[in-house]
Design brief:
The chain is of the alpha/beta class. It has a domain of 236 residues: Rossmann fold, CATH 3.40.50.1100. The protein is built from 19 helices and 15 strands. A 6-stranded mixed sheet has the order 3-4-14-9-10-13, sandwiched between helices. A 5-stranded parallel sheet has the order 8-5-6-7-15, with helices on both faces. The chain has a two-stranded antiparallel ribbon with strand order 1-2. Helix 3 packs across helix 10, helix 4 packs across helix 5 and helix 5 crosses helix 6. The radius of gyration is 21 Å and the shape is globular. The chain binds pyridoxal-5'-phosphate. The site of pyridoxal-5'-phosphate (PLP) has 17 residues, from helix 11. Pathway: Amino-acid biosynthesis.
Length: 465
Amino acid sequence: MRYISTRGQAAPRDFEAVLLAGLAEDGGLFVPETWPTLTPAEWRALRGLPYADLAARILSLFGAGGLPLEAMCRDAYAGFGHAAVVPLVQLDHRTFALELFHGPTLAFKDMALQLLGRMFDHVLEKRGERVTIVGATSGDTGSAAIEACRDRSAVDIVILHPENRTSEVQRRQMTTVLAPNVKNIAVQGDFDACQDLVKAMFNDAPFRAEMKLSAVNSINWARIAAQIPYYVAAALALGAPDREVAVSVPTGNFGNVLAAWAARRMGLPISHFVIGSNRNDILARFLASNDMSAKPVEPSLSPSMDIQVSSNFERLLFELLGRDAAATAEAMTRFRAEGRMPVPDAAWKQATALFRGFTLDDAGTLAEIRHLWTSSGYLADPHTAVGTAAARALAPADPAVPAIVAATAHPAKFPDAVERATGFRPPLPARLADLYEREERFSVLADDLGVIEAAVRAHARRNAA
Ligand SMILES: *Cc1c(COP(=O)(O)O)cnc(C)c1O
């Protein structure tokens, strides 16, 4: 299996090269040259597999077969807090929460990153290479990246967070990881300062080359691939391929919903997709009126969806445009320049036939958390609540079609919002119950590129001696 760029100007690559490259050199995103498809009999044969084995089977269809997939998937999901890895919980007569938050950091990014950390390490070791991953976090993604990279032999990781501006849970999820290849830096500045420092390090070409800087960001194809199996698992459990299902996803960068779309492209009978947004509603506006225009990001109770430019949308656009790379490149360039993406009417109509947009404000989100709690005794985090409300509002016309909602974070990760809605704070799961007693390790450093680069260099160099 080879991968091509959505902008058509990069040489095709195999899975491992795409894993290491992330973004294509023409600025586009890698997609499979052809999509693997399964017959109904082949889908049925996957029923009943343990999750790790199912994931290995699906990933092998995407050209990852050169990796020891079965062992890797078993290892990646062994530490999850639920034997099913991704349990389905029924919320009402036709809505099911697909819980993706049983990993080490209690959010769905662990599903892909736990696997990616192992894939990175394996491929780098094989090639005799090392990388230094740097990233900035306002709280949530940093911990998933740190957990994915801890104790990996070919990877060092440095995560910058703004001093005193993350919640204590978020900080402790990062700073209590005492693995020697992990370094946390609390920057004396805000999140923007952290992001600027990371950008400046990547723009410092000699430093970037010396440290072999890398990132595990959400445009990496391997992350999408690793998110396909859980939709397969849920759909099979509910009767696919002999029964249609709908899928509702609380959406930010469009990666999670794109993985669901990929499952449909492979032949899984998904009737349609519901895209849940908070007040940052660019995707809902696009679907309602073909208005894909960026507005300033506004904070909400579901911060991981506080995004205006959904970077993975480019992969869907490429497909909607009949895989016309030149047209995709032009649309993306104009979006960058003008803040508004011109999508031809025919492509937009195709999108609206398959995707439905739904927006929920903070008050609606709190009401939905309360509703789930009082009607079913289910505690949802604010992101998941956007997804469940969306699924109910835009349920399929056929009542025999169940809706799968991606439950993307554990409620204990957002205790303030849950307390506002229900009156109590959800407890951390037992395996994290001692988080507040664990030893923390981090450096507090000035918002100064020279100071930060020196710290990254010292961290990456400690092995070289
Ligand atoms: C990242 C994240 C999302 C958004 O997922 P995308 O793949 O960016 O659309 C939703 N909920 C939570 C809790 C997240 O961490």
